[in-house]
Design brief:
The chain is an all-alpha fold. It is built from 8 helices and no strands.
Amino acid sequence: MKHFRGTPRTADLVALSLLAGAVLLVFGSRSAALGFYADDTGFMTQLPPGITLTALLDAMRGYVTGRNLHMLWQYLIFLMAGGSTVDQLPALHAIQAFFDALNVVLVYGLLRSWPVSVFTSLTAAALFAFFRKPSGNAFLALGVADEHPQHDLGPGPRNWRLAHSAVCAKR
């Protein structure tokens, strides 16, 4: 069994396309219909596009200890989205879906850098994409905020939460 080194084989390109396409479809297809997540408003008001470097550093120092870089990443994402207002929410959700897809592709690439088959790597990366404890995006993709306890069905398989979310999703 040859593993992924250098130029990807056709099977790897197909697997990567399937993984990235599935993640973008599931998490990015309804970006324009999604709303706020719990801490979106705090970031939006605290990190306007014209913020000075000093103010950004102060915001980073004042954020949750150990998560200070969240402020920097969020600011950079606001720049990519073209701003930090409600009008940019669809772009923000689309960017998040892109980064989810990138993470899944990186998991696949990491597995293929070891002597792991295409099928096993594809399966593991797909499980990582759709059956890990949701970071919030699973619910955001379906229009349901996961900060509400009634939407967290515990540590079980994410497909149960997705099914629940699909029933409860905003129309």
